[in-house]
Amino acid sequence: MSEPQQLPAPRIANPVLAPPLGMGPATLGLGGFLVAALAIGIWSFSKVERQTAAKAPNQISQLSDGFVTPISSGDHANIAAALAVLHLPEAQRLQVKRDVLEGRQRLGWIIFIDSIDPDGDIVAVEAAGLVQHVSLTKAWTAVAVPLSGTPIGITAVRDGAGGGVTVALATRAGPVTLRILLPGERIEVAAP
Question: Does residue 157 contact residue 151 with C-beta atoms inside 8 Å?
Fold first, then answer.
């Protein structure tokens, strides 16, 4: 048997940055623009969320005695926050805004909570013909609703992990647990 041949130790070169492939000044300009646009979009969206969170009721003392806390017609910041979170096309949102500012329409907040276990339950809230979907959690979820003098419908959409859709509504007296709903079941609550 022969002795294994001794090979010289490998030499490792110093690291060198390679230029990005296909990244000329024009590409970097477009990329920089896209990154800036994305950052501005995220900042703008988070600003709306911060404004809404600041205006939506977040303490029991800010709630009314009923299931819906009406927004005063003179509270323009709260009205703007509520309009910002309504799931409406822009033209319809502007019409609701005009109606609210001219006293033909009112807005309110309804606060949802998962009453047992935050397992992915979802409800649909229907008020004045507008339907919005709400994922239930243990944290307060404030939903802006248009008030038309008719009851607000709450329909179970999805039962997260079985056992029914468990929902409570926050009021000044504390959370009010509604009966456990099966998907498709609907209940109505009074609106001011």
Answer: no
